[in-house]
Amino acid sequence: MRAHDRITFDPQILGGRACIRGMRISVSLLVNLVANGMPVEQILKEYPLLEADDIRQALQYAAVLTNEELHPLTSSPL
User: What angle do CA 25, 27, 32 make, to 5 degrees?
Assistant: First the structure.
C-alpha cells in the first residue's frame, strides 16, 4: 500500500483539492472535523462511505504538509 493511496487529486472534483478516494470529501474537511473535536465514530456515522483508514490518512497527509523546515538564506559572493 502506498503511503497515501486514499488521497486523490482530480481537477473535476472540488477543483483538484486533496480528496478521499475520489469522493467529494476533502482532506481539509476531515482535518477540520477532527480538529474541532468530532470523534472518528461520529464522522463515520455522518459520512457512511468513509472508512477509519480514510480519516487516518487525511491526518497523516496534513501532518506531512505541515512539516515545515526553515532554511536561512545565505549571501553568495559576487
Answer: 100
Structurally, how many domains does the chain consist of?
Answer: 1
Q: CATH number for the domain including 43?
A: 1.10.10.10
Q: What is the C-alpha to C-alpha distance for residues 6 and 61, in angstroms, rounded to an integer? A: 10
CB atoms within 10 A of CB 56: 13
> Which of 58, 71, 59 lies closest to 8 in space, CA to CA?
58
Task: Please state, in angstroms and rounded to a whole number, the distance separating the CA atoms of residues 17 and 74.
Answer: 34
pLDDT in tens, 1-28: 467 899 999 999 999 999 999 999 999 9
